[in-house]
Design a protein that fits this description.
The protein is mainly alpha-helical and about 350 residues long. Helices cover about 80% and strands about 0% of the residues. The protein has one domain. It contains 11 helices and no strands. It is globular and about 75 Å long.
Amino acid sequence: MNKFSAAISDKLFKNQLRSTTSVEEFEKINKFRKKYSFTLMSTLSGMLIALQSRVNGELSNQMGDSLEAALVSFGTGLIFVSLISLFRKDVRAGFADIFKAVTSKELPIWRLSAGILGASFVAMQTHVVPIAGVALFTVASLAGQTAISLWVDHVGLAGGIKSAISKWRIIAAIITFGAVVVSAWDRFVMSDFSILAVTLAVFAGSWVGVQRALNGQINSFSKKSFATSQLNFITGFSFLTILLILRSLFTDHSIMNLTSGPWWMFLGGSIGVFYIAFSAVAVQYVGVLEFTLLSVGGMLIGSLLLDVFVPTKGTQISPYLITGIFLTYLGVIANGQSRFSRK
């Protein structure tokens, strides 16, 4: 009887062990799938930035005013995300949950300013690009993004796990910054160099890094990325409207000087809706720095694909851009080494 009981117990133990192993393996596979999904989402976000830049660039050219073009882009994005909210009850519920969190003091009200930071970046871009040029602005603003991302992850501002400022994370940030410098090397015009303009661009980039972190926190309460995106577009559109009214009062700029153009130039806002929705989810899991590294890679790949398949007049495929893409993913590998060295 004892031998029989022992055999039964041994069999039950083996089945339990096999079951436990299966659960552990399932959790590992599930964790890998999640990581892969958010890595892909971060890269796709960068590709959306490249596409939105091309679309908004055409809108700005047609209107002859970058600030007005930004307002139109935010306005079309607000209409698009509002339509999504209209037909999806869960998005409306998520939007309401944001303000419930504010009322219960779980979410400080100042953190709802994420959309204002995004709109401020656009406004700063409007003033700096004519002075410093697109390439120099892109590089300087990315320097601000990567630097602030280290701090944001360190204090856990996005609501995820805090990450120490390690040697490998700093190396990853430097490599990625260098990748953008290389990718834009053939577009630098050093005669346009201005210390003030570059400093403003660095600050503008840091706002984007903080915006991503705040959106991560907002999304942890809304649970719906489109609700987070809707809040961003409401606050951003309101801020740009006030800014444009103030400018019209104190300058001779006309408002809404819109001429005809291709229909797709109004899609920039809709693209932005998906970008904010993707980034709000991804930064909670991969962190702001890794999201920045991956999205830069996606942005450069997106730029390359646009230059290949829908080139603008005078576009040439730059070897600097291709080199920059490789360097960017070297930075991603370096950041991965940071996680490996902690284990």
